[in-house]
Structure formats: C-alpha cells, structure tokens
C-alpha cells in the first residue's frame, strides 16, 4: 500500500504547507511545470519523487525528468504527462497510445483545473491535481492525495492549500 501525493504546476513555488503533505506521503508525483528545480530537489530530500517536465520547464528540468513517465505502482499501470487533455479531448500526442495501450491511471497537469473523472471509452481513471503554485489564473491552490493498494486506487482526497 502506498500513500501518494499528486501535485502539478508549482511554477517554482514550494512552501511549508506543501512540505507538510509531502512528509505524510510515501511517494510524491509531480505532473510538470516544476519551474525551479529547488522544488523537486527539496521534495527528493524527503520522499521518493516521480515527475515529468512541463512546457515552462528549462533544459535542466528536461534533462532530469521525462516528458512521459509510465510505470507500475503496485498493481496499477500509471502514465504521467504534463499536457494530456481530458477524456474525449486528449492531446493528439497521447491520444493514439491511450487508445492502443491505456494505463489504469492517466495523470496530467497544465490546465490548473483540478479534475478527476473516469474515461469509460479507454477504461482508465483520469486525474489532474490542479495547480499548487502561485502563478496562473487559478484562485485556489490544490493537490490530490490517494492510496494505491495492490491494483486499487482508493481514498482520494482533494487538498486545498489556500488562495494564491
């Protein structure tokens, strides 16, 4: 069983509130737009981190993190990318692969809009944790917490960390 903290779009921002939740997780997953690598370096000192780079990230982030990160977490096939779209409106860069070989959990960031929905067509759970940084049009900073237990994704919780 693993307790996951999912965040995205930090845009170089890390604070004690985010770190409090990092400390409660077994693993932290970052869905891109990291900004300054101080964010991921700080997280990595505390917990295992899986991340992808986003469209604002520089060459240093692109050297350290992939565009797509697909892996198994216990019995769950996970795919994280930054610009993924939503069920019915997936980014063309991922649409064919999602249809041909869908993961059980598809995660993206970019929109700054927290959204969790089941994609019946591709039989997968889609998650976007919104944005926990202070840059962008979002009003409330958000993250997601959940548990992966074998092949089950459960105990999903929205974490609102205040106005930006």
Describe this structure in words.
- By secondary structure, the protein is of the alpha/beta class.
- It has four helices and twelve strands.
- Strands 3-2-1-11-12 form a five-stranded mixed β-sheet, covered by helices on one side. A five-stranded mixed β-sheet has the order 4-5-8-10-9, with no helix packed on it.
- A hairpin with a 4-residue loop joins strand 9 and strand 10.
- The longest helix is centred in the first third of the chain and has 9 residues.
- The model has no long low-confidence stretch (mean pLDDT 97).
Number of strands: 12
- Structural class call reads alpha/beta
Looking across the biggest beta sheet, what order are the strands in? 3-2-1-11-12
Average pLDDT number: 97
In percent terms, what proportion of residues is strand? Answer: 35-45%
Q: Write the H/E string, N to C.
A: EHEHEHEEEEHEEEEE
For the termini, the CA-CA separation is 32 Å
The Cα radius of gyration reads 14 Å
Q: Report helical residue fraction.
A: 10-25%
Topology at a glance:
Layout: E1 2-7, H1 16-24, E2 27-30, H2 38-46, E3 49-51, H3 59-64, E4 68-73, E5 76-81, E6 85-86, E7 89-90, H4 92-100, E8 105-107, E9 114-119, E10 124-129, E11 140-149, E12 152-163
Parallel strand pairs: 1-2, 2-3, 5-8, 8-10
Antiparallel strand pairs: 1-11, 4-5, 6-7, 9-10, 11-12
In short:
The protein has helices at residues 16-24, 38-46, 59-64, 92-100, and strands spanning 2-7, 27-30, 49-51, 68-73, 76-81, 85-86, 89-90, 105-107, 114-119, 124-129, 140-149, 152-163.
């Amino acid at each position: 069983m693993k307790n996951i903290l999912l965040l995205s779009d930090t845009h170089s921002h890390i604070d004690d509130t985010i770190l409090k939740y990092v400390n409660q997780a077994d693993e932290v997953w970052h869905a891109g737009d990291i900004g300054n690598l101080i964010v991921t370096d700080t997280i990595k000192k505390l917990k295992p981190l899986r991340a992808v780079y986003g469209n604002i990230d520089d060459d240093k982030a692109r050297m350290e993190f992939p565009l797509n990160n697909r892996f198994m977490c216990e019995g769950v096939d996970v795919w994280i990318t930054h610009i993924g779209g939503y069920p019915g409106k997936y980014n063309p860069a991922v649409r064919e692969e999602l249809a041909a070989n869908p993961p059980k959990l598809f995660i993206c960031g970019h929109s700054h809009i927290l959204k969790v929905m089941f994609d019946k067509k591709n039989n997968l759970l889609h998650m976007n944790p919104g944005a926990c940084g202070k840059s962008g049009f979002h009003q409330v900073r958000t993250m997601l917490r959940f548990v992966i237990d074998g092949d089950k994704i459960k105990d999903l919780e929205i974490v609102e960390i205040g106005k930006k």
